[in-house]
Structure formats: C-alpha cells, structure tokens
Design a protein that fits this description.
The protein is of the alpha+beta class. The protein has 2 helices and 5 strands, in the order βαβαβββ.
Length: 99
C-alpha cells in the first residue's frame, strides 16, 4: 500500500493520509480530496447558499466568478449605514454585478 495520495481537485500527488479528508474509498484508490481544497469547497458552497437565500445582499465578480457580500466589513457609519463594496475582494477587479 502506498503512502502517497493524490487530490482530485488540485491534481497534486504528494499528500499523506493525515492531509486528506476521510472518504470511503480513500485508502483503496489512493485518491481523494486534500483538506485545503475541501475547505475552499465548503466556503464556496456556503457563499452560494447565502447568495441564493438573499440575492439582494450579494455581488459576483465577472472576472474571477467570486461571490461575496455587498457590504464592507467594519463598523457602520455615523448615519447608521454600511459602506458598499466597489471592487472584488479576491482579484480587486471593479467589474462586479448583482448576484
């Protein structure tokens, strides 16, 4: 049995059992999804669910297909409103639209 596992998402073949997410056929196939890729997959799915639930509160980037909140993080302004985002937080592009 080989100690090297490959990730089906990032295509790298240098992982150990500890670095892989536990799956049913991980040991028999020596292939699965690594923990960093799985974490990104979960984050993306959470953002998609949030955007589908409330599309008025979400934006999408046309360049990198990122999905994010319409508001900047941080304190509210003195008049009680939040600052709106004007660029993508991932690729810094200003080519953003409503979800």
């Amino acid at each position: 049995m080989s100690d090297v596992f490959s990730c089906r998402s990032c295509k790298k073949a240098e992982f150990t059992v500890i670095q892989m997410k536990r799956e049913r056929k991980l040991l028999s196939n020596n292939r699965g999804i690594c923990k960093p890729c799985y974490a990104e997959y979960v984050k993306l799915n959470l953002r998609l669910k949030k955007a589908k639930k409330n599309p008025k509160e979400s934006l999408k980037c046309d360049n990198c297909d990122g999905i994010f909140s319409i508001y900047n993080r941080g304190p509210t302004q003195k008049n009680g409103t939040k600052k709106l985002k004007t660029e993508c937080p991932y690729c810094k592009s200003e080519n953003i639209d409503r979800y």
